[in-house]
Amino acid sequence: MCGIIGYVGTSPAKPIILEGLKRMEYRGYDSAGIAVFENGKISSEKKAGKLQVLTDEVSEDHWSGTAGIGHIRWATHGIPNDVNAHPHTDCTGKIYLIHNGIIENFHELRERLTAEGHEFTTQTDTEVLTHLIESHLPGNSLSEAVKASLKEVIGTYGLAVVSEMDPDTIVAARLGSPLILGIIGDGEYMIASDATAILPHTREVIYLDEGEVVTVNRKGFTITTVDNTTVEKNSSKIEWDIQQAEKQGYDHFMLKEIMEIPRVIEDGLRGRLIIEDGIAHFGGFLEYEDKWRSIERIVIVACGGAAIASRVGEYMLEEYASIPVKVEIGSEFRYRKPVLDEHTAVVIVSQSGETADTIASLREAKRQGVFTFGIVNVVGSTIAREVDAGMYIHAGPEVAVASTKVMSGMVAMFSLLTLAIGRQRGMSLVTGKRIAKELQNVSLLAEKMLKKNTETIKSLAKKYATYDNAFFLGRKYNMPSAFEGALKFKEIAYVHAEGYPSGELKHGPLALLDDRFFVCAITPKDSVYEKNLSNIQEVRARKGVVLALATEGDTGIEQYVDDVIYMPKTLEMLTPILSMIVVQLLAYYTAVERKCDIDQPRNLAKSVTVE
Ligand code: AGP
User: Fold this and answer.
1) Which atom of ligand 1 is nearest to the CA of 404?
2) Which of 36, 297, 465, 504 could in theory staple to 65 by disulfide, Cβ–Cβ 3.0 to 4.6 A?
3) Cα 26 to averaged position of ligand 1 atoms, centre (Å)
């Protein structure tokens, strides 16, 4: 995933562009570049490395131009170096283009354009776009040349392009990668990949849809399709504040976002839980009650952490809504031949709403005419706008690459969906009220647990950060939490951690256990507590080191393990909300001990908008 930004207006463009790239740095950070109009000419610079390298490089450049574009990269084609950084230019050096996405037919286009005499200088797929536009420019405006070029392109793009032939004009287009137009004021506009870059300047935005192209300069903007059909669009208002997207005194976004989890749960439930009736009310259900009534099977599709959170939803829905549910990994589902029918609902779960494999799975479900429901955090994202119905998680911007608060929000959303569907399918009022009441209370439990246990977790991390290997074990509702602990330890602490259903350890993995490992056993006082204790014994019998997550008051477990982190008691289906927080916080402090780059872990990006 990359970040693109453009500005045209009355203020110097360079500082605005660099500041906007800083706010999008989590989208990718292996190189960055900028191009700014200067008296009809374009000045440009691009550098491998983090944004600061570029910022230092152009700090002495007194570019006073008031229109330009900028890019921050997460490499897909071509290693991260100065040459492959965006913007890319054509043979004349008068067209500058930035791009987020993948041009799938770039080989054929490159061969054809090379045969026509174009000279390529990079290893990227993106560069073909600049030469394609160059080939369409004669007799056309930049906007017309861009649209003609995009008709030849197969792939995905969120792009912006400027040319000395069209001074102070930006042409931007989207297909498969997000693009937003910010309306700052009279003759002043921005385009960007996400609202975080636009918010310091305006809350009024227009979300471009697939296949739309915006041409913008100080005189105003027009939006058309690639076929040049004018599109009228209403503007929207960004609801959240910029400080929500900043660290607010925490050392890392990840810690801030973990500490936000109680508020995220509250915000996600607000106005959607009717405790006295034991039901959940939200648009994506109420407007489709008859459709949900006809559903006999649910397929949940997600990737990474979202898929882990979805596993909790799978267990909830099966137990309390008595409906068959299966979680599918997006990168597998999209290439299988899934059997879906009119009685299947496909639930698409994604924080960013831009994950390529998840989007492709959604589009496969829609191709089969199946009802699609989204659980998404980013408002106006591709998935949010393409599902038939859905619910926003309302977690606010999640900046750390490692997803934490949004995963808690996803579990809260599944709790609401379980309540809604369950009550429609025979769940009793008593059960509904019990779930609703406990759900209402879980944010307070999370808050108390964070206040009470953060220091314990921080000190235990000093001990467990010395291990390079770990097993995370859990059963039923906490099996996903075991997978989450392992994911976070890999993702931000670079520890080789594996998550397993506790009962699986003896079917092979136990052979791996030795003193290089520690075992985190998630063992709340639930319906499988005794089974989990047996698994702890299996580990102890082989001199394994065990850190248990247990329920407050269960002091008896201390005799079987080396350390315990206690969690408040709650409904079994809600225990993963608490256990996920614990393993995420443990991973965070372990990563601190191991001096890892927590908010921007190596090799990763916040949203994987490529296959
Ligand atoms: C989780 O910590 C990771 N950042 C990653 O697995 C993430 O959950 C996955 O890429 C899915 O992203 P999405 O929710 O934006 O679709």
Assistant:
1) 2
2) 36
3) 13
What residue owns the CA closest to ligand 1's atom 16?
A: 350
CA 383 to ligand 1: nearest atom: 16
Q: Which residues on neighbouring strands pair with residue 522, listed in sequence order?
A: 549
576 CA → ligand 1 middle, Å? 18
What is the Cα–Cα distance from 193 to 146, expressed in whole angstroms? 19
pLDDT digits (tens, 9 = 90+) for 288-345: 999 999 999 999 999 999 999 999 999 999 999 999 999 999 999 999 999 999 999 9
Atom of ligand 1 nearest to the CA of 608: 10
Mean pLDDT to the nearest integer, 491-504: 96
* Signed CA dihedral, 404, 251, 239, 270: sign only: positive
The residue whose C-alpha atom lies closest to atom 5 belonging to ligand 1 is 304
Options 2, 303, 520, 596, the catalytic residue? 2
Question: What are the structure tokens assigned to 311, written together?
Answer: 């596993």
In contact, 386 and 363? CB cutoff 8 Å: yes
Catalytic residue among 47, 405, 476, 606: 606
Question: Is there a catalytic annotation at residue 91?
Answer: no
132 bridge partner residues: none
C-alpha gyration radius of the chain = 25
> Distance from the CA of 402 to the center of ligand 1, in angstroms?
7
Q: Which domains does the chain have, with CATH numbers?
A: 3-238 (3.60.20.10), 241-427 (3.40.50.10490), 455-601 (3.40.50.10490)
Tell how far CA 22 is from the center of its chain: 18
Is the distance from CB of 46 to CB of 67 less than 8 angstroms?
no
CA distances (Å), origin 236, targets 192, 239, 240, 370, 380: 15, 9, 12, 29, 9
606 is catalytic: yes
DSSP secondary structure letter of residue 26: G
Name the band, by pLDDT with cuts 50, 70 and 90, for residue 600.
confident
Pairing outcome for strands 31-38 and 67-73: antiparallel
Query: Strand 496-501 to strand 67-73: parallel, antiparallel, or no bridges (unpaired)?
Result: unpaired
